[in-house]
TrEMBL record:
It comes from the Bacteria. This is Carrier domain-containing protein. SUPFAM superfamilies: ACP-like. Residues 1-72 form the Carrier domain. Gene3D superfamilies: ACP-like (1.10.1200.10). InterPro entries: ACP-like_sf, PP-bd_ACP.
Length: 76
């Protein structure tokens, strides 16, 4: 999945370790700095602009999917 391939390097995990259930509670490297880096990676990969509110919600893959879908991004 394109999303997993974009998120995995930021979180320093293999894409195969990610699922829609992945979150700050399940990935140790998912800290406040990772959230900022996730925002930049998502904006670059999916050519979108995230609001400050969106960025504060980048705490789980499920929430990232919701945000991307609200921006019109089709999730593979």
């Amino acid at each position: 999945m394109k999303l997993f391939r974009a998120v995995a390097p930021v979180l320093d995990v293999d894409p195969s370790e990610l699922s829609v259930e992945s979150s700050q509670n399940t990935i140790i490297n998912w800290d406040s700095l990772a959230i900022i880096n996730l925002a930049m990676a998502l904006e670059s990969e999916f050519l979108i602009s995230l609001s400050a509110e969106d960025i504060t919600r980048l705490r789980s893959i499920r929430e990232i999917v919701n945000i991307l879908q609200m921006r019109g991004v089709r999730i593979e």
